[in-house]
Batch of 2 targets.
Target 1
Amino acid sequence: MKWKGKRQSSNIEDRRGQSGSNRGSGGFNPMLIKPLLKILFSKTGLIIVGIFLVFSFITGNNPLSILGQFFVGNNEQTETSKTYLGSSEENELAAFSATILANTEDVWNGILDNYREPTLVLFTGYVSSACGTTSSATGPFYCPGDEKLYLDLSFFQDMERKLNAPGDFAQAYVIAHEVGHHIQKILGITDKMQQLRGQMSEKEYNQYSVRLELQADFLAGVWAHHSQDMTHMMEKGDLEEALNAAFAIGDDRLQKQSTGMVVPDSFTHGTSEQRIRWFKKGFDTGDIEQGDTFNANPL
Ligand SMILES: [Zn+2]
């Protein structure tokens, strides 16, 4: 893909290096009380307290809050001021993802009126969202509750090394698939599915999930169609990369693979053949009207 130098989206939340669970932990260490009291009641301690009170009087700060910050620390601040230094390979993947997201914005703004651009959250390990706490082993996912895409960039490395689905266009397809879920949310399809959930058996619901997933593949194909019209980013072999990825991460292929590997957003994505066919249909037509996977028979 010829993606370098193109616009990068600003709808990125870089949470890499922050683990979802330990934010705001820590605090005052009780072991410090004795030595602190000792210092406080010594001569130097009294002088320090005096200087401190004068200082807070001049600056207008509450002396207790300054003391609190000094001794207890402000976890929120240390967390956000810590910049994550990824490897150059990882940072390039981050730049690539921001570029592809920008491109999906350009395409979908052209197709839908009042398109709400989603945010892409980059994370490492675990992430918390409106959908709960999720491990990166789940693979990339979209959370309808906060309309954000979640991606641990190591998934792209896994695609290449473990899933035999290499190539930048294969990675772009994964992002476009998650954006496809966002389109489904905007169009009200996701909410309809959620309503249906309580009214049917698990097995029936899974069949609907497959249709939802194949539609996201179709929408990724629609994106690729218009993206190519607009930017000509695709190069020879790129379409094959996406089709190969669709093949490699289909349910049937995944179940044949050994355990301990990652799976993109759930096990209910349809067979490799179905995924390729729907992506290709979106790519060939570029027409969202052609993507009614819910009434397609055969699927
Ligand atoms: Zn999906």
Note: Residues 177, 181, 213, 216, 265 surround zinc ion (CB under 6 Å).
Target 2
Amino acid sequence: MKPGLVDTHCHLDPQYFPEGADAVIARGAEAGVVGFVVIGVGADLKPARAAAALASRYPERVAAAVGVHPHDASTLDAVHEELQRIAEDPAVVAVGEIGLDYHYDHSPRSVQRAVFSRLIGLARAVRKPIVVHTREAAEDTLSILEAEGARDVGGIIHCFSEDRAFASRALDLGFSLSFSGIVTFKSARSVHEVAAWAPADRILVETDSPYLAPVPLRGKPCEPAYVVHTARRVAELRGLSMEELAALTTSNAEARLGRGFLARQ
Ligand SMILES: [Zn+2]
Ligand SMILES: [Zn+2]
């Protein structure tokens, strides 16, 4: 039996998959992926428009999230109005990914913080949850989520790679934790601990394609079909069968994003 998983975070832009998103979705479906949350972010709004269009084309399989990645934070002024319009599209289920990245620092940190706050405001205005990217910025991420009332919309901490203390505060804000291929890495002990301990109704799985291919596919470009390996590791850490883990994370994704995927329709 195929697992019935939702990949809650993938980038399917043509620069990553020149063969086109349809082929990637078909391979995912073949592996047992019933839902794909496609993230539309980039230097302009082209990826956001493309993600919304793809989700409209596959209403039973694909949902879109649109936002401005912290790498591109400096672009928000130019795109804010249209981004809000795209975010209102019913095919768009979340605003993201948004957040802070102090590892690459592609945009100045003060700009990243201001833009993150404004985008939480945008999500509150359109009443959709947020997808949060945080890297080497734990304290600032949590204090902005707290200060901007992110609790009102909730959302997902994507590619969870923080510790239990961070997870506790994010859970208190009503957020879900999405585990990527990182949970399959031997060295990621604090992520293993959180994946085993987090409340059952708050865990999700994702690939973050085209990055972070899980073990045993390290070094390959990642794609949604590979979420099966990540899910298997989370199941093992929680002492669940693959079927139980898939049913749990898929219903969590549906509840969090406010829509059903193929499995329920
Ligand atoms: Zn990210
Ligand atoms: Zn991403």
Note: Strands lie at 5-10, 33-40, 62-66, 92-101, 130-135, 155-157, 175-179, 203-205.
